[in-house]
Design brief:
80 residues; mainly alpha; two-stranded antiparallel sheet; 75% helix; flat; LapA_dom
Amino acid sequence: MLKFRRLFSVLLLLLLILFVAAFVLENQQQVTISILGWSMASIPVALVALSGVMLGLLLGMVIFAVHSLATLRKRAARVH
């Protein structure tokens, strides 16, 4: 069972890598991002999209960690 799970994980990771590579190769158009009068140099659409996804994942992990710590502290306070 462990070998099957490991094989499944490796195949899933390879599929994800293949998907990301295809996404990056298909989205090479250059865009300029302007925010509040500040504009960046032209960068590929794929970089903008993947940066947004990574920022969202990181923010979600931070929010989850803060919530988990608060829950653990409440449980510890109830025990003592």
